[in-house]
Write a structure and sequence with these properties.
It is built from 9 helices and 5 strands; from the N terminus they run αβααβαβααβαβαα. The chain is an alpha/beta fold. Helix 6 runs parallel beside helix 7. The two termini are 30 Å apart.
Length: 207
């Protein structure tokens, strides 16, 4: 959920505390594949999408880059086999510059690399949005910011031994917007969207 959208904002901290307290008693192990991010990750049933019991969902709605960094202590000590990171759209909605977004993102990536160097790290692009739904005011006019931020994520991946995963070929229409049949609000994915995401990265998950 994009922070500032007016739906989950009031209970975002409470929900974050609830989820992190649950994750605290569900430790990560070296055989696990971790999906890490915000509400877009939180909403995915990845065990079923990939038919793999070793996948752990560590998404929390409304989370930010700094929020993920705060809870790395629940993930990196277990040295998971793989981490699929998808984070940053809520930071974009807060109006940060691309330079600031990249600075925060790279700091997070460097911590993951330092604390769990043998984990295969996949940096997924921030997904396209579709502002024709007119749902999230904080994302109006931010399409160019997302594209420029993704360029920085790709550079960060190359500089830190991670693999950049461009999700746009699976989710974007010919105008670079999130396909209307894959969302009901212009930001979050519906079942068709999750299936397209999973199909697009399945070789990386299963190899």
């Amino acid at each position: 959920m994009a922070a500032g959208a007016g739906i989950y904002t009031a209970s975002a901290d409470e929900y974050w505390d609830q989820k992190t307290s649950l994750f605290e008693v569900l430790p990560i192990t070296g055989r696990d594949i971790v999906f890490l991010g915000n509400s877009i990750t939180d909403g995915g049933e990845f065990n079923e999408l990939f038919e793999m019991d070793c996948i752990k969902n560590r998404g929390i709605r409304s989370d930010l880059i700094t929020g993920v960094e705060k809870r790395l202590g629940q993930i990196t000590p277990g040295h998971p086999d793989k981490i699929f990171l998808l984070i940053g759209i809520n930071d974009v909605s807060h109006g940060h510059s691309v330079a600031e977004l990249a600075k925060r993102y790279e700091r997070l990536v460097k911590r993951i690399r330092t604390e769990s160097p043998d984990t295969k790290l996949y940096l997924q692009s921030v997904m396209p949005i579709n502002n024709s739904f007119k749902r999230y005011k904080g994302l109006i006019g931010k399409e160019s910011t997302i594209r420029e931020f993704n360029k920085e994520i790709e550079k960060i991946a190359a500089a830190n031994g991670a693999e950049y995963v461009n999700l746009w070929p699976f989710l974007a229409d010919s105008n670079g917007r999130l396909k209307a049949d894959m969302t009901n609000d212009g930001l979050h994915l519906n079942g068709r969207g999750y299936r397209a995401w999973a199909s697009g990265i399945q070789d990386l998950v299963k190899k």
